[in-house]
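Lecture 7, part B: from sequences to assemblies.

Below are the input chains for today's worked example.
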Amino acid sequence: MTRDMAFFEFLLRMGDNTLVLGHRVSEWCGHAPVLEEDIALANTALDLIGQTQMWLGLAGEVEGQGRSADDLAMLRDAWDFRNVLLAEQPNGDFGQTMMRQYLFDQAHVLLLEKLAGSSDERVAAIAAKSVKEVAYHVERSRDTVIGLGDGTSESHRRMQAALDLLWPYAGEMFTDDEVSGIMAGEGIAPEPSSLRAAWDAAVQQTMSEATLVIPDSDFAHAGGKTGFRHTEHLGHMLTQMQWLQRAYPGARW
Amino acid sequence: MSSPNSAYPDTPEQAMKPKRHEWPLWEVFIRGQHGMSHRHVGSLHAPDADMAVKNARDVYTRRNEGVSIWVVEARHIAASSPSEKGPLYEPSESKVYRHPTFFDIPEEVGAM
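Predicted structure of the full complex, as structure tokens:
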């Protein structure tokens, strides 16, 4: 694998994570339990979509085939997506959404902090801009996980169920492979495994405050960021997200 | 009055009568980019002060409106009563001499 091929794959991983999770979060718009959460979730979704434009924009540039961020977002099928499986999992109830958000945000902020010092100036610039947004995301999702986990018996039960359900999807964020090896060698991005200890420490602290028990298992689903096998949920999501561009190719505002 | 726990609909407080559970109401004050003082911009619901600040950030500063947020639970605000308008405010209407418009302000004082 050449450096540029690996770089393109890496940028797709970054941009597809924010695109898919951003779309998922946007599904709450108009449906959240209270108005304040509705607006907060919409803000988070918009932050993530904004980051997607930067990551996929750079991906198209690196690929050099003339594809724009929009082309990459709207005209690829499920097997070409490189997001982690966690991002595409359905919203479930509000607690499940916030648990997914926290597990992702906590890894996201650690990664972006490192990427701000990337050897590639464009990556460093995108990360520096994104990390301020994501620092707020993780603060908010962490507080909500703690508030609901350490809340009532009903909210506690739902948050524990969410953690049990999503835990096997967390490990994929920290697996290394050929792509990450080349990125680390070039000084563009750290090996994902190097972030695991800090993530574990932060998540343990949060779950302990939330009175939630982390499942005693290291089993991790894989196949999202390599594109080997996404869960069935991604395809369903894309039929909604991409419908307009598929039905009316080239349609613009 | 509502307590933080009433934020959670299934928290048993009184077994007897069902009551409407809501997060307490908070009044939000924002200091703008160039403003010297915080101004009241609206209100919102939140379970505690910390979340009220976060909600205020999300609801009232999305368009770069502010650099500082204050929140205060609405029940802590003491307000004058509209029915006392007469005694409270009308007496000052006839006292124009209280406006500092009868002095010449020296140039060197500058803007006041």
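Note for the exam: The beta strands of chain B are 25-32, 39-45, 66-73. Keep this in mind when comparing with the next example.
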